[in-house]
Amino acid sequence: MKELVKIQSELKAPKGQFNSFGKYKYRSCEDILEAVKPLLAKQNVTLTIADDIVLVGDRIYVKATATITNSAGEKEISTAFAREEESKKGMDASQVTGTASSYARKYALNGLFCIDDTKDADATNTHGKENTVTYGSLAEVVASGDPIYAPIADAADKAADKAALREVFKAAKDKLETSSAIAVATKNLIIAKSKQIA
Q1: CA within 20 to 30 Å of 64's CA: 29, 107, 110, 121, which one?
Q2: How many CB atoms lie within 10 A of CB 166?
């Protein structure tokens, strides 16, 4: 779809949010929508986003589907999944679902508009300086739905101690040694978690 190609090349979706705890900037679903709406109008296309609740094993996931449709009826679709936490301190069930929906929608939009939420490997190489990460948390990597790194991040996120985390790292070592941005981010997040737990 030629309209989508034009939107992808013109879209600038800045990271308009700031996580004061983790000291990093990030882009929300709302930031992407605000940036893309004028381009949708310019190309005379519509964007819809829908959520489905999906049960995988004993876990609940929100599946977000972003669909762009041109005036000829041609469609391009992108989907992403985010797992609901069983419970999250300070949140009721609807807030937990809403959080998962926001993550899933953000990553469906990232896929549709080719927005890379990570930096390239050189940008994440700190050359011995303070360790930085490109995803704000292991949960964000899980929410990305990446078929290789989301399961690794999920296992690392569930690791209760350094020994369990070490086992996750050891099992995934070959995958974490690649130079892809998501591999670097996942590895850095695992390392950061290992410094925080007993």
Answers
A1: 121
A2: 13
Residue type, 155: A
- What are the φ and ψ backbone dihedral angles of 90, each rounded to 5 degrees? 85, 5
Q: Token pair 């599946």 is at which residue?
A: 63
Write the CB contacts of 197 (distance below 8 Å, at least 6 apart in sequence): 159, 160, 161, 162, 165
The type of residue at 32 is: I
Residues 70 and 3: beta-carbon distance below 8 Å: yes
Give Cα 26 to chain centroid, integer Å.
10
Residues with Cβ < 8 Å from 52, sequence gap 6 or more?
A: 62, 63, 65
Contact in structure between 62 and 101 (CB atoms under 8 Å)? yes
Nearest Cα neighbor of 118 from 153, 68, 73 is 153
- Tell me, yes or no, if the pTM score tops 0.85: no
Contacts of 101 (CB under 8 A, 6+ apart): 51, 62, 64, 82
Name residue 191's amino acid. Answer: I
